Amino acid sequence: MSDEPFETSENVHRDRREHGGADAIHPDQDELDRRTEEERVEAGVDAYDPDEVPPATDEPLPTDVTQSEVYEEAKAELDREESEGEIYPLTDRHPFPPSHYDRS
């Protein structure tokens, strides 16, 4: 424990007729949680306060791959190769995929 005085923003005025341990004013639980998280960050227990992290600003990834430019380019290339006879479905007549050793 530290010998430093505890700093608080709450103004609590005790009635001198009450017992020193009696708590007539109950602090707000949300305020206690916030202060606890601040102390955990200051002590190095937590790396950051999750409430102080800004929301992500990245745009969401596209969910439909077929709408991407890369997919459209690949499909156009496959369509071209198929129309020129460079690729064909595997059958008994053509059991292996075509090879293009002459192309590099």
From TrEMBL:
According to the UniProt entry, which residue ranges have a biased composition of type Basic and acidic residues?
10-43, 91-104
Taxonomy, superkingdom? Bacteria
- Region (Disordered) residue spans: 1-104
This one is known as Uncharacterized protein
